[in-house]
User: Fold this.
Amino acid sequence: MLIPVTRTISLDDSELHEDFLRASGAGGQNIQKVETAVQLRFDVRHSTNLPDDVRGRLERLAGRRLTKDGVLVITAQRHRRGSKERRLEDKTRRSGVKLLRGRPTDT
Assistant:
């Protein structure tokens, strides 16, 4: 299957390889069991679908993401920032409920 990149360039999906791995850093109780990062690999130098000028530009722009063998490696991992914010909001809400349970003040 071809993946369109531009009007004139398409990549064969067999040229893209993805590996799922465990994300580094803190992430909660499931971090030891759940693979939450993905690493995408694309062999720039041996791709038959890239014109030479595009290949050269991609190799220059890739920087450290390009291996010595000409493989572009992109790693993406999910951050648990949203769950942390929800937890803190829930703590604040529960705190407010507990404050309302206190003794009534004399007026």
Remarks:
- The beta strands are 2-4, 10-12, 16-21, 37-43, 71-77.
